[in-house]
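Possible regression after last week's pipeline update?

I re-ran a chain I had predicted before the update to compare outputs. Posting the input and the new output here so someone can diff against the archived version. Not blocking, just want to make sure nothing changed silently.
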Amino acid sequence: MTNPTDNPFDDRGAGPDAGPAEAAAAEGVDDAAFDDAVDADAAAQAEADGAEAGAVDDEATRLRSELDERTEDLQRVSAEFANYRRRVDRDRRLDRELAKASIAGELLNLADDLDRAEQHGDLSAEGPLKAFADKFRNTLDTLKVTAFGAEGEEFDPAIHEAVQDTSNGDEKVIGSVLRKGYRLDERVIRTAMVVIADPA
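New output (post-update):
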């Protein structure tokens, strides 16, 4: 008859309901070795997790660096385009001003003829020539072409071309105007041809 106190699994290791410690004891593994094995597994897992986190950080750093480079490239291209657009606008404006000045310059000979006709009294009476002169001068005003150079004005060598100097002192004024000067806006398109004299 079997003794109920006898362990039927004494010769076969731990029973089916044994825990990890009992299983480890049954297989001849002591608790310290088992704990070391668990700690080693945990350390290996932590190292693997750390390596993975480091790889993620490295990738994030690389992507951030590439983003910074692309941002700098975009800012540089945007600045270059803005400068290019300003140059194009400036060149277009200059071309328009030069074309306008060229056209106005061609009209100045006609303005001189009208001035001479006025000096001879040909524009005093109402007639076709007077009507034409008025329309022509209105056109110059519309183009912002203005005349300068009148007797008594202070002589300015930057805008007055002196063909004769009859002055004796240091102060010089325009004694007579041989040909008017003209400006287009603020740009001088023709200097005035004058005779210098002393102030009256």
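Follow-up from reviewer: compared with the archived run. Residues 31-119 form the longest helix (89 residues). Marking as no regression found.
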